[in-house]
Amino acid sequence: ASAVGAYYYLKVIVYLFMREPEEDQPIAVPMQSIYVVVALVLAGYYVMKMGITPSRYLDWAVSAA
């Protein structure tokens, strides 16, 4: 069973990293909306804040349960 799983996942990795890139597709798509940028910045900020000071959020979660 593990050989089948390894074959499946290695096939995906080989497809992602070993294939030739398509010439007509852009490499990256620029962000078109300020709302997307603001949402990503806020999400990143709160993820970092929760990682640096998790006790506040853990206490809040325990009291909610």
What does it look like?
- By secondary structure, this protein is mostly helical.
- It has a domain at 30-65.
- The chain is built from 3 helices and no strands.
- The chain has helices spanning 2-18, 34-52, 54-64.
- Helix 2 crosses helix 3 (54-64).
- The radius of gyration is 21 Å and the shape is flat.
- The model has no long low-confidence stretch (mean pLDDT 88).
Main attributes of the structure:
single chain, 65 residues, 72% helix, flat
Model regions low in confidence, pLDDT < 50 over at least 5 residues: none
Overall average pLDDT: 88
Q: What is the straight-line distance between the termini?
A: 40 Å
Rg for CA atoms: 21 Å
Strand content: under 5%
Overall 3D form: flat
Total of DSSP H or I helical runs spanning 4+ residues = 3
Reading the helices and strands in chain order gives HHH
Quickly give the structural class. Answer: mainly alpha
Q: What is the tally of beta strands? A: 0
| Major β-sheet profile | none
- Considering DSSP H and I runs of 4 or more, what fraction of the residues is helical? over 70%
